[in-house]
Fold this protein.
Amino acid sequence: MLQLRPNCEACDKDLPPAAMEARICSYECTFCADCVERVLRNVCPNCGGGFVPRPIRPAIEHRPGVSLAKHPASAERRHLKWDGATLAAFIGEVARIPPERR
Ligand SMILES: [Zn+2]
Ligand SMILES: [Zn+2]
């Protein structure tokens, strides 16, 4: 099940479950739209993949047993472990390749 992580790994902005600006890679690395566009250039610093908008888990239980209350968001904040220079070099290299050919 998709882990709904609480913050942007780059700028630490809060990204609650209903945040329209949350972006995820295929490993659920989570960032805000601003960081993905301006800093990361659609390159996940952890895996090199691209991003998509994170879907909103319904707060209302439209179907029995499936809702945000039944499967709550994660509270564990994550933070990038790369320093600025390492990150910039990685992004510069990978961003040249479109996500579908990485
Ligand atoms: Zn951010
Ligand atoms: Zn990733």
Q: What stands out?
A: The first helix runs from residue 33 to 39.
